[in-house]
Design brief:
179 residues; alpha/beta; Rossmann fold; five-stranded parallel beta sheet; globular
């Protein structure tokens, strides 16, 4: 049986989640995991209310997963190391996640990709990175022309949204921090 890891970072939903769909297409079993990154917890942008909101979202996602025969695995530590350990424990051969464009995220993802096959999908932004460019192919440096170009692009269509899966098969016996 083939197993993949669905690495959850920002998108705590089952509906229209391209990374989840990719993980299900790669593996018969999917390990949904959220990794608490100590580096991000130390960020000046993370406070008590933001953490409370995050953990409420994780509890809700865990309930949705349990209703579909799975559960959320929560780990804490360096994402590359935790994913590698989880892949060894579960037999997973691929990690699927939504692409993140921040400098830290790109560095973190490169670190993961050096140890495991990493499949990044769209979904974090309405338009994929690089879709809103000037006629010469360069990025905008002024907001108003960027905004006009962005608004001129076709929006995602509701009929193209991915449905929430009815069932998510997951391996059992994996350790997790409490949600």
């Amino acid at each position: 049986m083939k197993t993949s890891i669905w690495w959850i970072r920002r998108d705590l939903r089952l509906t229209d989640n391209q990374a989840l769909a990719a993980a299900q297409s790669v593996g018969d079993q999917v390990v949904p995991v959220f990794i608490i990154d100590p580096r991000l917890l130390k960020s000046q942008y993370v406070g008590e209310k933001r953490l409370a909101f995050l953990f409420a979202g994780l509890r809700s996602l865990d309930a949705d997963l349990r209703a579909r025969g799975s559960r959320l695995i929560v780990r804490r530590g360096d994402p590359a190391g935790e994913l590698y350990r989880l892949a060894e424990q579960s037999g997973a051969t691929t990690v699927c996640a939504e692409e993140d464009v921040s400098p830290y995220a790109r560095q973190r993802d490169q670190s993961v990709a050096e140890r495991l096959p990493l499949h990044l999908t769209g979904g974090l932004t309405v338009q994929p990175p690089g879709a809103v460019l000037k006629a010469d192919g360069s990025p905008y440096t002024v907001f108003t022309p960027y905004s006009k170009r962005w608004l001129a692009l076709p929006p995602p269509r509701a009929e193209n949204l991915l449905p929430s899966p009815d069932r998510i098969e997951s391996p059992t016996g994996l350790s997790s921090l409490p949600v």
